[in-house]
Automatic annotation (TrEMBL):
All copies of domain N-acetyltransferase, residue ranges: 15-153
Superkingdom of the organism of origin: Bacteria
The protein's name in its UniProt record: GNAT family N-acetyltransferase
InterPro entries: Acyl_CoA_acyltransferase, GNAT_dom
UniProt GO molecular function: acyltransferase activity, transferring groups other than amino-acyl groups
């Protein structure tokens, strides 16, 4: 495991990000079943039968030092409502990607995503001392793209035929980033959004 990424819990009034564990299996199936998220062709949310392999892959990535996966627990009812991750960790260049994020339908369009991203970005820039943080999504995932742009990230470009999807199609990946020099303004922006939502 990398010395740079270590398991930890991040907390906000809205959410608690806890290190992913195999014991979260059933709760993640329940979260993904709220909206049958695996049916969204432009995402990679695992079907219930694939959840154990999904968790194993994420934990193997963490053990190799490439990622730090979390479950997202909503504080108001203590329910696990999704997953997110720091990944593609590049300690030498101080870069990391926030992604692999999905939420139960009942947690979407709430403060859950903003609070989660605020925690992850704060950890990346203030603890890990990142130079830049990337966020990526499918070109056709309009909701995800809008959410990333609302955070204050700027689009870097589109990687054409970047990744093969479970159905065999190729994904065009839209790449966004936030630079360390932009973090103070983005932090104020996110804190303001969360204050208004409280």
């Amino acid at each position: 495991m990398s010395d740079w990424l270590q398991p930890l819990t991040l907390e906000h009034a809205e959410v608690r990000l806890e290190p992913l564990a195999r014991t979260h299996h059933d709760a993640l199936i329940e979260a993904a079943s709220d909206g049958a998220l695996w049916n969204l062709w432009f995402t990679s949310v695992p079907k219930p039968d694939d959840m154990a392999a999904y968790i194993d892959d994420a934990l193997a990535d963490a053990e190799a030092g490439h990622a730090q996966p979390f479950v997202v627990r909503r504080r108001r009812d203590e329910r696990i409502v999704g997953c997110t991750r720091l990944g593609h960790a590049d300690a030498a260049n101080r870069r990391v990607e926030i992604g692999w994020t999905w939420y139960a339908a009942g947690a979407q369009r709430s403060a859950v995503n903003t609070a989660s991203k605020r925690l992850l970005l704060g950890h990346a820039f203030e603890t890990l001392q990142c130079a830049a943080v990337e966020l990526r999504t499918h070109r056709f995932n309009r909701r995800s793209r809008a959410a990333i742009e609302r955070l204050g990230a700027l689009q870097d470009g589109i990687l054409r035929n970047h990744r093969r999807m479970p159905d065999g199609s190729y994904r065009d990946t839209v790449v966004y980033s936030i630079l360390a020099s932009e973090w103070p303004a983005v932090r104020r922006h996110l804190d303001h959004i969360l204050e208004q939502a409280a």
